[in-house]
Every structure is written in C-alpha cells, then in structure tokens.
C-alpha cells in the first residue's frame, strides 16, 4: 500500500482501505510502503488489524519506515495488531534529520529488539540504497546492524531523480552478458595489437559508409556483433568502452563480502549485482503483485505506480503512471481480472521487449516520450527501459 506524505493527498483512510476486503484473503503478503512514511497515517494500526483479520494465517504484513516515529508504545501496538515484518531505511552511519542514518535509527532497532521478546514472530531488517558515497561505510553499517540481530537486509541501487545524482550510482547499465561478450572480444582485439579506439573509429567509418578500413579489425568487429546477435543482444560500444571496470570490480567484491557476512550470521538478504542481469525476471509480475496508491489507483509494479522523472545510465527518462482502475469505484479483484490487465501481465512475462540501455539509439523517441505507446519491437509494455527486472533495484514485497 503506497502511503504518501501530508503534502500530497494526505492519507488513505481506513474506510477506503477496507475496500480491499475481498482481495486480502488471496494475499501472501501485504506491504505498507512508498515515498512517504506509513507511520504518519493515524489509522495505520487499525488498517493492519483489519488486514490481519481477513488474511490467511500464513500471510505476512510488512511495513517500510524511516523509524523516526517509532517508540515502544507504537511498536507494541503494531505487533499486537498483526505486523510481521519491519524494514528501516539506513543509508549512512551518521546524519541529520533528513538522512536515513544508523545514528537516527539505532533507537528504533533497540525498540524492535525488545519488542521481539514478547512477539517472537516479529522480524525486522534494514534497507540500504547503495551509492558511491556510502560504499566505505557499508561494512561498518552491517556490523552495527548485526548487533541489533536483524533478520534480513535489502540493498538496492540508486535511481537518480536528478542529473546531479547520476555521478553517485555504483552500477553500470550494460547488461552482464553484453559485458562478457565485449570483454572476450576486447581481449582478442588487444592480443592482435589493436585498441578500443581502433574499433570506435571503425564504427564511425562504417556508419559513414567508408570502405577503406582494415579487414582484420572489421572481421573482429563483425564477429563480436554476430555473437551478440546470436543470443539476442545488441551492444552499445561507446557505453561499453566507457565502463569504469576497476570501480565496478571493487563494488562487486564489496557486495560479495556483504553476502558472506550475511550467510555467516544467518541473515536473509537481497543484494544487487553491478550489471543488470540478462535473464530478466519481473518479481512484481511473477509474484502477482499489485500496487494500490493512496488515491486508490491500481498499478502493476513499483516502476509504474506514479509519474516521475529519472536519469538511468545518464539518460533522462520520463515515466508515466500506468493504472488499471481505482478501488474506490471498482472491486479490486475485478480490476486485477480485467482483460487489459491480464494481457499486460502476459506481455511482461514473455520478456520479449528490447533491452534499451544496450542500444546505440537509447533512449529513442519511442521510449523517451512520456506518453508511451509501443517500443521498437511493437510491444505495448514500457518495460524495455526498466531495470527492476535486471535485479538492480530491490524492495520488500
């Protein structure tokens, strides 16, 4: 359930929330999250109680919070109401009120640790948005979280909301198989005495229809692209050449170390790679998720539940909200079972759309226009420019 702050629509009311009654018994999990703070909603505990009374015994209810409004009374009320999972945002060791810092969250973790003495089923953890700014702090943050006996850790990469944040990302948008193909042929290229600049010069000459180029390097160039095309990939040569391999290797090693520590301490984790996975999987569609905004609008995934602007791979992307109905005017199950919504899910699950960030024309007008109609493969789902299904971004579901 997406809860926004007091400057937007205010909050979803309990009476609006109860419209989900017929849907709740079918859920395996319910999560209160979003860009706002769920604990600001004065009826959040009553919502949790209502949901728990309607859901299966095996189902769980989760809540994502910055922890500022946590106190012992609220923690016990939430646990008594049926809350199963709590995730607190922690991005730095120290910081002021505007930061998701461990310094600010320590009291919340202490309260959760105490609350679990009486509510054994309560699980809690932390969510970290990884940037170049907090890489050096990551292991220290993790060690402190371990002292609070967290059950799970979710790390997600940054989706830059402005041009200024592009330099903060700790990942690359070339997909992992494209990178492997490029590295393989780069080694062959260098072994034969050529450089990437020779390849780039060749690409420019070919685009200008020059014919006085080296046949050997041309064969290497064509062989690389033929291998990529044979496994359904395109290659963005310029972007591949611009990769900061050393930095990416350092981030990958750090995340591998985080995984080891989590395994040693029996902490469940979701930790992203540094390159999007080629074998795409949309966890929202595969897990039959729906997103209900504070205004009641029903959307299929985290990427499409609101209008926003982002800069992925240094490319500006306007994202238009996709809604299939509103729980205030339609029954939730009727919305989910709409033919249009069903066809959308089926189209996404085929994964037959392009991978836009490997394309030399990215982002083209088809994907950049806010009012998306179709992509270059004639698909009507705007997923070619989404990196959620490449595992770079994670959340509690």
Structure write-up:
This protein is α/β, with parallel strands linked by helices. The protein is built from 14 helices and 10 strands. It has helices at residues 14-17, 44-54, 72-81, 102-115, 138-147, 176-191, 196-207, 215-230, 237-241, 245-264, 283-286, 332-336, 339-350, 365-368, and strands spanning 29-32, 60-65, 85-89, 123-130, 152-157, 268-270, 291-292, 298-299, 308-312, 315-319. Strands 1-2-3-4-5-6 form a 6-stranded parallel sheet, with helices on one face. A two-stranded antiparallel ribbon has the order 7-8. The longest helix is centred in the middle third of the chain and has 20 residues, at 245-264. It starts with 13 loop residues before the first helix and ends in a 29-residue tail after the last helix. Residues 1-7 have low confidence and may be disordered.
